[in-house]
Each structure stands twice: as structure tokens, then as C-alpha cells.
Amino acid sequence: MESHQFLRDEVCRNFLCWALEFSIKVQLFLLWRLRKAFDFIQLSVKSLEFVNSMCGGIISEQCFHHTW
Question: What pTM did the predictor assign?
């Protein structure tokens, strides 16, 4: 009976280790995706700032000094 208990504990331990490892991998993947999204947003903002500077600041003029 004791060997059955040991086997069950070993299976549970292995499963918990696997679940923890899987959870960490998922979190790292999500962080990587978030970082990629952040990089894309940053690039978009830099591109928009560049276009805005080339157009003489018309975007900020339209967006920030618009009277509703």
C-alpha cells in the first residue's frame, strides 16, 4: 500500500512540475508577444512623429488645437 501512495505522490509531483513549467512558458510567451506589440506601437508613434515633422506639425495642430 505504501508503494501505491509513493507512486501517486510521484505522479502528482511530476504533474505539478509539468504544470508549473507550462505556466512559466506561457507567461514568457505572452511577455514576448506583449514586448513585440509594444515595439510595434513605439515604431508606429516614431513613424507618426517623423511624418508629422515632415508635414510641418500639421497632425499636432489638428489634434491638440482643435476646437470642438
Answer: 0.52
